[in-house]
């Protein structure tokens, strides 16, 4: 059974904020009454009434915008706290990514974003940055796989020279480490879910390119090196097969 790694907090908070949006004038006036008290200085000259009313409306809107920003700020702290229950830091990042993305899309869809930007002009870009940050954190989970494809500990090859047993073993260990790490991550992360198709496809494509490029480069370096009598044991996957495995991450159809 797929788990979407959503918290109920954003759902409840967005519902509450959407209700405020429906009654924004009343909500703004109530906030103003708490700030200023119940006594308003209404001008006696009718010619001043229009400008005073407009000023009051703008003031109330700013108060409501500020209040909504505080709700969103507390919601973010709540999500950060809940994300710590996941021992896997990559899963924690996916959890935060899903929730931040949900909040941003909900704000945009309901036009709440216009009200938020009254006092927080960069609200939209801030959420986009949070989402990008979590994607970056998630991608770090692949470093333990990619490290096997680097030149670290790789022997220096001389054309025509025969490899020593130790040198052959280094290459074997690198292939085995990559294969085992790839299989483990794909098995685990296939059970995670990213409901937003656009985000899911973006993360898959980004990860495919990162891993595939590194794997192809490693295969190229080892192409003319005889390090084993059983190459099929270590060259288990073609680059296209690696890409297919990554393409199945976050498979919500299963």
Write a brief caption for the model.
Helix content is 70%, strand content 0%.
What are the defining features of this structure?
single chain; 254 residues; mainly alpha; Monooxygenase; 2 domains
Spell out the helices and strands N to C: HHHHHHHHHHH
Taken from the alpha-carbon principal axes, the silhouette is elongated
Q: How far apart are the termini?
A: 8 Å
Helix amount, in percent? 55-70%
**Radius of gyration computed on alpha carbons:** 27 Å
Count of individual domains: 2
What is the β-strand count? 0
Report the structural category. mainly alpha
Low-confidence stretches: 37-53
What does this structure look like?
Belongs to the EXO70 family. It comes from Crenichthys baileyi (White River springfish). It holds the Pfam family Exo70_C. This protein is mainly alpha-helical and 254 residues long. The protein folds into 2 domains: 8-139, no CATH class; 150-247, Exocyst complex component Exo70 (Monooxygenase). The protein has helices spanning 8-22, 24-36, 46-83, 89-110, 112-116, 123-139, 143-146, 165-189, 197-221, 231-234, 239-247. Helix 1 packs parallel to helix 4 (89-110), helix 4 (89-110) runs antiparallel to helix 6 (123-139) and helix 9 (197-221) packs antiparallel against helix 11. It is elongated, with a radius of gyration of 27 Å. It starts with 7 loop residues before the first helix and ends in a 7-residue tail after the last helix. Mean pLDDT is 83; it is low at 37-53.
